[in-house]
Write a structure and sequence with these properties.
Layout lengths: L3 E3 L10 E3 L9 H52 L18 E3 L4 E5 L10 E16 L2 E14 L6 E10 L1
Antiparallel strand pairs: 1-2, 3-5, 4-5, 5-6, 6-7
């Protein structure tokens, strides 16, 4: 027969009685497993969305930086002018000779906020110059069409941004 015990383990008081049989007062293993499964079903998608959001934010930052670098190079080339020539060694060049420039197009797109250059995101900043001319009713126009392009990462470009400008003589 079951014994009557008080909730606090002492002597029973009126109105606060309950019957306890064996070890039924604790949680069962099934309840714990069910709680773990439900919790994991909630945590996994939340964690995945946090990781995806961080990766997306980093990618958008790289896109913004690439666009700024392309705009800056386009402005430098426009300031250099139609007849600009010179060294074509790296991305600091402002050569507007017909062809693709520079010979070494590598540029750091993102340093990832640390001093370790091993995890920098490198890109390739190039510009291609084409001479264009046309005439109409006795008036001829000579311009250079310049396509400035940034592609990254440098080893296997997956993303790119491009801008085309016209520089008149």
């Amino acid at each position: 027969m079951a014994t009557v015990k008080a909730i606090d383990g002492g002597t029973p008081r009126s109105g606060r009685r309950r019957i306890v049989r064996g070890n039924q007062a604790g949680t069962t293993l099934i309840e714990i497993l069910f709680s773990v499964v439900v919790l994991s079903l909630i945590i996994v998608p939340v964690f995945d969305s946090l990781v995806s959001g961080r990766m997306l934010a980093a990618h958008r930052g790289e896109e913004r930086m690439a666009l700024k670098l392309v705009e800056r190079k386009a402005e430098q080339l426009m300031q250099a002018g139609f007849g600009s020539v010179g060294s074509d060694a790296d991305v600091s060049s402002t050569s507007l000779a017909v062809g693709t420039h520079p010979t070494d197009p590598s540029i750091v797109l993102n340093t990832r906020g640390d001093a370790d250059s091993g995890n920098d995101v490198l890109g390739r900043l190039t510009w291609n110059v084409r001479a264009v001319s046309w005439s109409s009713s006795g008036d001829s126009v000579h311009v250079k069409e310049v396509d400035v392009k940034m592609a990254w990462p440098a080893a296997a470009p997956q993303d790119s941004t491009q801008m085309t400008i016209l520089i008149g003589s």
